[in-house]
Amino acid sequence: MPIIQTQQLFKIYNEDTIPVYALRDLSLDFEEGEFTTIVGPSGSGKTTLLNMIGGLDTPTRGDVFIDGTNIASLRKGDLIDFRLRNIGFVFQSYNLIPVLTALENVSLIMELQNLDPKSTRERALQVLEEVGLADKLHSKPSELSGGQQQRVAVARALASRPKFVLADEPTANLDSKAAMNLLDIMAKLNEEESMTFIFSTHDQRVIERARRVVTLVDGALHEDLVKAK
Ligand code: ADP
Ligand code: ADP
């Protein structure tokens, strides 16, 4: 069974005035362990698709299934729990909490999941080390570079071992060295822990690293390319 399925997904903004078809009839399957990028011109629906898959916004028509569960069937509180347990998010704006240290930012989601404090701390330390920030545990976001903040955001997304990670232009604000570092971290987790990644990008070097490239144009599926191994 695919880990994520979208069925005839439509998202229409401003349906009552001047409708914007952000997604048109998208039916896509994503299997566990994929390393997939969503590409397409600005305004083609990439962010909207990631928001629908992540349950951050609801489709106008159509359904999203995660592990066979139709996320529209979940009540609000259950959806929040479901997201915490299953999905890691990495956004362009890192959404780190300014008053918390790197370690605290990474620990927060696990604390919300009521994991015991000892394993929370161990796991947070482990992922921060994996992303090369073992010496920045007690730094606040304002004391970190853009690339370092992005790596805290990635560590936070990975810490609770989500079933899959959704990343919206994760390298957009990074210089090319930091961007490739981030891709290396993602690829390693994909290979070693078979963590599923779906990320949008404009960056040709990032597209080259993906194993599947889904291209959207005007909200519709334009091409779905799986590269040969
Ligand atoms: P991309 O991520 O590929 O740049 P988006 O998913 O952000 O594309 O946007 C797809 C289309 O939906 C665009 O035409 C955009 O202007 C429109 N759109 C996105 N969010 C909203 C919104 N909240 N209200 C109205 N239109 C929106
Ligand atoms: P900036 O945002 O200022 O470009 P980076 O976050 O890209 O900074 O990198 C800062 C330093 O950390 C660099 O010397 C880089 O080589 C190192 N670095 C980046 N990623 C990793 C990683 N995954 N593991 C270890 N060190 C890293």
UniProtKB/TrEMBL annotation:
It comes from the Bacteria. Residues 4-228 form the ABC transporter domain. Pfam families: ABC_tran. It is an enzyme of class 3 (hydrolase). Its EC number is 3.6.3.-. Signal peptide: none annotated. One of its GO terms (molecular function) is ATP hydrolysis activity. GO terms for cellular component: membrane protein complex; plasma membrane. The keyword Oxidoreductase does not apply. Keywords: ATP-binding, Hydrolase, Lipoprotein, Nucleotide-binding, Transport. Belongs to the ABC transporter superfamily. Macrolide exporter (TC 3.A.1.122) family. This is Lipoprotein-releasing system ATP-binding protein LolD.
